[in-house]
Amino acid sequence: MKLTKLFVFLMIIVSLVFPISVFAEPTTINWWHAMRSARGKVVEKMIGDFNASQSEYKVVGTNKGNYDETMNAGVAAFRAKKQPHILQVFEVGTQTMMLSGAIYPVFELMKDAGIDVDWSRYLQAVLSYYMNSDGNLMSMPFNSSTPIMYYNADMLKKAGIAPLSKSDPITWDELGEITKKLVSAGIAPNGMVTAWQSWTQIENYSAIHNIAFASKANGYEGLDTELQINNPQVVKHITRLKSWADDKRFMYGGQKYAGPKAEFMAQNAAFYIDSISGIAKLKKGVKDFKWDAAPLPVEAGTKKLQNSIIGGASLWVLNGHSKKEYKGVAAFLKFLSNNDMQEYWHKETGYFPITIDAYDSLKSKGYYKTDPLQEVGISQLNRAIPTKISRGLRLGYFVQIRNIINEELEQVWNGKKSPQEALDNAAARSNIQLRTFEKTYK
Amino acid sequence: MIKRSFFKSRYLPYLLILPQMVVTLTFFYWPAIQGLFQSFLLSDPFGQKSTFVWFYNYKELFTDPLYLKSILTTFAFSLAVAFVSLSMGLFIASMANRALRAKALIRTMLIWPYAVAPAISGILWLFLLHPSYGIVALGIKKWIGVDWNPVLYGSDAMVMIVMASAWKQISYNFVFFMAGMQAIPKSLIEAAAIDGASPFKRFWFISFPLLSPTFFFLTVMNIIYSFFETFGIIHTITQGGPGGSTNILVYKVYQDGFVGLNLGSSAAQSVVLMSLIIVITFLQFRFVEKKVQYGG
Description:
The complex is a heterodimer of chains A (442) and B (296).
Chain A: H1 2-17, E1 27-33, H2 37-53, E2 57-63, H3 67-79, E3 86-90, H4 94-98, H5 106-112, H6 124-127, E4 140-145, E5 147-152, H7 153-158, H8 172-184, E6 190-194, H9 197-208, H10 215-218, H11 232-246, E7 250-251, H12 258-265, E8 269-275, H13 278-285, E9 291-294, E10 311-317, H14 323-336, H15 339-349, H16 356-364, H17 367-370, H18 373-381, H19 398-413, H20 419-441
Parallel strand pairs in A: 1-2, 1-3, 6-7, 6-8
Antiparallel strand pairs in A: 3-10, 4-10, 5-8, 5-9
Helix pairs in contact in A: 2-15, 15-16, 19-20
Chain B: H1 12-38, E1 41-43, E2 50-52, H2 56-62, H3 65-96, H4 103-111, H5 118-129, H6 135-144, H7 154-182, H8 186-194, H9 199-229, H10 231-237, H11 249-259, H12 263-288
Antiparallel strand pairs in B: 1-2
């Protein structure tokens, strides 16, 4: 009897002297992401490394399907008050997340957790996509890519054209000349094909040439933004592509990447514009010809070329958890942006490293000498300090807007509408969406 | 004299239908009412802000020319699917109904496509008819010389989704027609044959009218199928493209609600879709069913 009492007493003393951490499980941090198969494994490895690096927190990653499904899972969980700490959301959902009232902005999180981050050491064109209008970072960039132009090197060689530079872009006029040569000589059945036409031919085209996609600094400065893609420059670009489509210098391969990629791999098209994530896919899939990559073409006589813009997803921290848990979230986000993690991420997936330090470190290790393809996108992204127009797009119902642009462009390609008509219509229809969005958040 | 059962307790019948009522109320009426309510709101997906806007969502829908086009597309699509799958199903059933040696085997094999999920059916047809990597599409372009391109031309895309949707449903129709035909007394057909009626006339004047209840039932089922269950096919083949030419109502509900997170508009669209189906089914029962001859 006496012994039992003594034991209980001792236990109380022990637990008072040593804080709960001795007995308690590590604090769990939930992260819902949209990374599957090969990328999913890379994510698991990064989580494993973090969990092994300390004992206070345990990050648990869960794949919730593709981007749409992951975002919906997050929304449903938030409504049921069962939200994860970190939610990965694709770039078009940025505005919805920012206004959701469900988030803990990353810059505040880091400040509150006492972690000092030098944001100037990050790739500015990546950060700027996820900043609010005051330049504060709202979500942590995670997987970011940008479009580049792949080409069939064998076909160019056959036509006696020198390989393209990996850092200096050719002009659209030059691309027109090259594709004309290839098609008329019968070397290539078609000139170029493009994946994600809204992202590559309108969003990025506008950013590179510093043309406003929408008013109010592309929507960063107000919900009363309106689409401006029916401007003369973009109309001219689409008109050019349409005229190319008529003489086979351009072919339409579908809205996403599967069709266009198949055309390029079957050597039906000599040029193929797609995200840098295409590098890995082409490396795996192309066996019977040599291919290479170059920056996106630009307009001749552009005084100052701007950065291209990113696609991909970022990590949002959701409201409603304890201070201690947020400390863990901050530590984890910090861990993800250290050099080792970023280099590993970049090498395995082809997505950009998000810090300049990681980029420099890879450079000094000679990584880009052995794999020069990987540098095409990153140097295009870093070639200028983003302007208010080239930093990104901040639009409500962006998914619908991209659908509208796709629909209207398709009607240009199949000859039902003129480029001006289609782009006017796209802007008008998108503006209705934007007004509904504005009304919702007023 | 029809047999009737009588319950001694007044409450027993209510108790017996209670489970059914509970299931229907929770899984049908409750979500439907929620949907109806949501359609009068503008709300953000996270549920932080909701504004009651009366008929704003409906007004936006019906002033959008593309939505009206989507309604027409849906009707054209479902009529085409119902027509192709019913006529093919009927044709195959009347062929298979003949006394063949491998009848049982053939019947079993004809039923299989029904077991294929719509999304898989979509993928299968995509592998056949995609302009970039479809085996049949490459053949069509090379040997027949038709510029087949469902990625670019709306009419080609429509043909493709109608084929993929009807193909699956043919099996379903086949089973019902087959059963219907076997229920027709042989003596009727033999009598007609003795009177000198040709096989076509025997089919048209005897089998077909006797099959009309089956036909009616299948028409309703096929239209409902093409309105709702073809989602997987559209999603895998065209995603509503090109230029919105295969964007049927149910796909638009998904696009706007699930992907685009515009809950108000999506809810309003579901309400419209639900009303359409109610009206169609009502019209069918009111006018078409009168012409149906139930055996007796």
